[in-house]
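Dear U.,

Please find below the material for section 3 of the report. The protein was modelled together with zinc ion; I have listed the sequence and SMILES used, followed by the predicted complex structure.
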Amino acid sequence: MSILIKDSLIVTQNEKREIKKGDVYVEDNLISEIGKVNVEAEYKFEGKNIAVMPGLINTHNHVPMTFMRGIADDVDLFEFLERVWKVEEGMTKEDIYRGSIMGIEEMLRTGTTTFVDMYSYEDEVAKAVKEKGIRGFLGWAVVDEELTTQGGTPVGNAEEFIKEYRGDDLVTPLIAPHAVYTCGEETLLKAKEVAEKYDALMTIHISETRKEVYDHRKKTGMRPAEWLDKIGFLSNRVIGAHMVWLTLREIKLLSERGVIASHNPTSNMKLGNGGSMPLVEMLQNGMNVTLGTDSVVSNNNLDMFEVMKFAALLHKNERWDPKATNAQMILDFATVNAAKALGLNAGSVEEGKLADLVIIDGNEPNAKPFKKENLVSNIVYSLNGLNVAATIVDGKIRYGEEKFS
Ligand SMILES: [Zn+2]
């Protein structure tokens, strides 16, 4: 497939963070030319006031749960989990597949081209990923054997899943130990062994609530991140979701080990976790910060534009400092930082990068005035996912095909 996007503002997210004006030409699954391009393409997008930006990357989701939207509002995490686990007891593989389709459609509609997931039966999620054509980094959820409803062992199932999907063009399999309160040392180390064996990433919830931290300290004498380091779990293969309750000592430790942060501000605020991820200190210590929605049950949507805005505002307010975050920094979290974390040749609009792209319609009232000077500001502070006119993943149009000629 070849695609030509004409006369667009281009949010390149290149080294210099340039915003260019011109055409973007996509051939097969790569961005092949940027500038003044005079070629015929199978699909052509022309319009007044459009912008091309890198597809957004959501680094924390449980996409099958999309079918549970609205079942656990206005409760804390532990009541939340009880309600979710109750539904999950009666859940079928078909529910997982259907929930995934629903969530993926929402992500493509709102400009997400890649997501990281954690759930059991990721083979069903993988089916939905392949069908809809989004990019999925799918983490088979692992908990202690006595807690699971999965047939077989969770680590064994994760390994089988990794073996099956290794090398796939859209699905990158990973292993996802759930948290320190559901995985003991043995489970975590087995998961790590599998990740190393197949050179796969891992994702885990770390220090989401104060209760988790206090309970773990009572049990082990250590805070979760300290303990994870002591048992040898932490490395640059680990994407830590939430990481709200961290000490400065833990931040330094996580940074030294190269752990990637997935910041989920909307979910944290909705569950009333109190406090906020210590973003400023994490950045000062050189951690790579990315953004995630978490599942729709704690969000309640998968719109990464909304997450960007919440992330920006949360820390300004928390620190009594409007300079604590800025629009460019936040856009980096959702694009270049996340691509780097996942080892993905994407996250920017440059020749030779994967064609994971979003086209923004600047004609909507909330996008005006639509110009180069305020474009990054608009993306973070005023647009939302419904401003997306088209989404391209791996060089294929996955949303908005009817708008191309
Ligand atoms: Zn989660």
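For the text of the report, you could mention the following: Residues 60, 62, 205, 241, 294 surround zinc ion (CB under 6 Å).

Regards,
Y.
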